[in-house]
Automatic annotation (TrEMBL):
Domain of life: Eukaryota
Highest classification ranks of the organism: Eukaryota, Viridiplantae, Streptophyta, Embryophyta, Tracheophyta
Residues covered by region (Disordered): 619-640
Transmembrane segments: 92-112, 157-177, 318-342, 400-426, 438-457, 500-526
Signal peptide: none
Organism from which the protein derives: Salix suchowensis
Name this protein carries in UniProt: Autophagy-related protein 9
Annotated localization: Preautophagosomal structure membrane
Length: 668
């Protein structure tokens, strides 16, 4: 099967068999000739072309070729995102100092500070009233011998300090080990792409990628073929695309309780009546990345034969990592507590309402992210949706909570105002005591209560439009499950939406809880679903010439995964296509982000179908090119094809216009 000049080995057509001989194993155990770097790159480049490493070091044809193009493009992209050499160096130095400060800060306050002595120490007016000398905190609140006696809690703290000190040394040494590679990437930007660090600050990523593609006309990066922008992004997001696909197909939905921290929307209900919820906390994401995504490929970027054919090995690896995380959990919790305190304490003190603000969870970010969507473009898109997501939840006012919050704000604000008046009259009065506390303490408490209660007061909306508010969110997230459509004003949709768009304070607590939750999932839940994970890899893996094995959704394979409800020229069974037309949406976003990329015949037919659909809708509405409905899709920028920047979309596309019975971005 051909796709834009790329050759596929269709692993996805294989049936999954665990008993007896696996058909997948048969396929992978066949002698498939390697088509990518390490074997083919040993050949000499074509005449007149420099070797890839020659771009980095200014050397001739005798230099060793790039052994890992995936790593090369990853460094190229990271250099762009970090905005140049000096930004990278300064960021590394700051991160090392920040980590060192966190370790030293926590060690000092957890071991040397005598909290009982600090609480009983008398200073200022207390010392004068007691007739004693002003306190010396260095003597009264510090332990001279912090490890005497050595208790279990102190042993845990010492273990934490030792563990993270070793990690700090590792990061320090890694800084120098990676510096050489960064300098090589910098030379590539300067000598081959003719892009300076100053130009990187404002140059779009698509322009950098276009320069890399054009460079191959004179200097080969891949000897198998000239890589397109799509090929490079496939390499860059090889592992991320699998994770996006697993979430899209519900592979990472487990039969767990709704009350578990970090749990997401319900995907399906099992035969035993248990609901399967998506979940992907940060520790679980890191674990799956290391145990699966980083381990499943061989050096030729093909799925390893033994990885697919031996599910027990993956189960064992997950359980071993779960046990290791369980042992390390106390140390991780200490570091996270100190780090979160240093990072957010000042914000919460000066702006207490931040705790009641909301942001997208880690799970929602991976649900919303599209195939082949690089990180900085995704962050730009998703950050634009925060305001609209908050507006949607404001469509569900809680009159009782608002009434109570107004009363609390009124009372606490009154007391805070009294403190301000006292400060204007005589600031020394604030040192006076009421019920054992000075007035400064009361001023801080009432000020905090006032800020939090005011944040809980919702705006009084005379007209509620949940459907319109949701459409504004969908413009940016491109996500609206079928069970939400037409039910935007229901409590069930609101509750599921809130699992994705959570309070900042609650997310911080969930991050702490996930440190203990992840070992439980790795030991008792995820291993039971290893078969499903490996089956997904088998069904949705294809071999792209010059790239290797990739998730077939990211290859924009309309013939095997198309959904005609979203304009695909092919219509495949439900089990083969992406949910909610994610592949089709991803194709549009990719073409928008990289307008110089030339899609294959299937892609061009898909674009033609969209243009035809748009023209029919315009004719059906009397040829109007502007819509007055508030529910319009202005999400991705106007779609522009490689040759014609006016096709096939206008910038505004109706949100609720059906291809069949539903809109393009909401069809099933």
């Amino acid at each position: 099967m051909m796709f834009s000049g790329q050759k596929f080995n269709a692993l996805s057509i294989l049936k999954w068999k665990w008993r007896g001989e696996s058909s997948l194993s048969n396929r992978l155990l066949d002698d498939v000739p390697p088509e990518i770097e390490l074997s083919d790159y040993r050949r000499a480049p074509s005449p007149g072309c420099e070797s890839p490493s020659g771009f980095l070091n200014g050397e001739g044809l005798n230099a060793e070729p790039i052994a890992d193009l995936d790593l090369f493009f990853e460094r190229l992209y990271n250099y762009y995102c970090e905005k140049g050499l000096w930004c990278i160096i300064i960021k590394w130095i700051v991160e090392l100092f920040s980590m060192g400060f966190t370790i030293g800060f926590s060690g000092f306050f957890l071991l040397y500070v005598d909290w009982n002595g600090l609480r009983n120490a008398k200073c200022g007016m207390d010392a004068v009233e007691s007739g004693i000398k002003p306190c010396d905190l260095a003597k009264e609140a510090l332990h001279l011998h912090p490890l005497t006696p050595l208790t279990l809690s102190k042993a845990v703290i010492v273990g934490y300090l030792g563990l993270f000190s070793i990690y700090w040394i590792f990061c320090f040494l890694r800084f120098f080990a990676q510096l050489r590679d960064i300098l090589g990437i910098r030379r590539f930007y300067y000598n081959s792409l003719h892009v300076t660090d100053n130009e990187i600050q404002t140059m779009p990523w698509a322009t950098v990628l276009e320069k890399v593609v054009q460079l191959q006309h004179s200097q080969q990066l891949c000897v198998v073929k000239d890589l397109t922008a799509h090929d490079i992004i496939l390499r860059l997001m090889r592992k991320e695309n699998y994770l996006i696909g697993m979430l899209n197909k519900g592979v990472l939905a487990f039969p767990i309780s709704l009350w578990i921290p970090g749990v997401g929307p319900t995907v399906r209900t099992g035969s035993n009546g248990l609901r399967h919820h998506l979940i992907l906390t940060k520790p679980l994401e890191w674990t799956l990345n290391w145990c699966i995504l980083q381990s499943m490929f061989d050096r030729n970027f093909c799925v390893r034969r033994d990885f697919i054919s031996n599910p027990n090995a993956l189960k064992k690896r997950l359980m071993v990592v779960g046990l290791a995380m369980l042992v390390l959990a106390p140390f991780l919790v200490i570091f996270m507590l100190v780090y979160l305190f240093l990072r957010h304490a000042e914000q919460f003190y000066n702006h207490p309402s931040i705790a009641s603000s909301r942001r997208w969870s880690n799970l929602s970010r991976w649900i919303f992210r599209e195939f082949n969507e690089v990180d900085h473009l995704f962050k730009h898109r998703i950050n634009s949706s925060v305001m609209h997501a908050s507006d949607y939840l404001k469509q569900f006012p809680s009159p009782i909570i608002s009434i109570i919050a107004k009363f609390i704000s009124f009372v606490s604000g009154g007391f805070a105002a009294i403190m301000i008046i006292i400060a204007f009259l005589e600031e020394s009065l604030l040192e006076g005591h009421i019920f054992g506390r000075n007035l400064l303490w009361y001023a801080a408490v009432f000020g905090t209560i006032t800020a939090i209660s005011r944040a809980a007061i919702t705006d009084e909306l005379l007209v509620l439009d949940q459907e319109g508010a949701m459409s504004m969110v969908v413009q940016h997230t491109h996500y609206i499950p079928k069970k939400w459509r037409g039910r935007e004003n229901t409590e069930r949709v609101r509750m599921e939406f809130e699992t994705l768009f959570q309070y900042t304070g609650m997310m911080l607590l969930e991050e702490m809880a996930s440190i203990f939750l992840t070992p439980f999932l790795l030991l008792f839940v995820v291993p039971k679903h290893v078969d499903d994970i490996l089956q997904f890899i088998a069904d949705f893996t294809v071999d792209v010439e010059g790239v290797g094995h990739v998730c077939s959704f990211s290859a924009f394979d309309f013939q095997n995964h198309g959904n005609s409800n979203y304009g695909s020229p092919y219509n495949t069974p439900r089990s083969k296509r992406s949910c909610q037309g994610k592949m089709e949406k991803s194709f549009l976003s990719f073409q928008t982000s990289y307008p110089s990329w030339e899609p294959n015949t299937q892609g061009k037919q898909f674009l033609l179908n969209l243009r035809t659909f748009r023209d029919q809708k315009l004719q059906g509405q009397g040829g109007r090119h502007t819509y007055s409905s508030p529910r319009m899709w202005r999400g991705s920028p106007s779609f522009r094809g490689p040759g014609d920047r006016n096709i096939p979309f206008s910038r505004e596309m109706p949100f609720n216009t059906p291809w069949s019975s539903s809109g393009f971005f909401v069809a099933t």
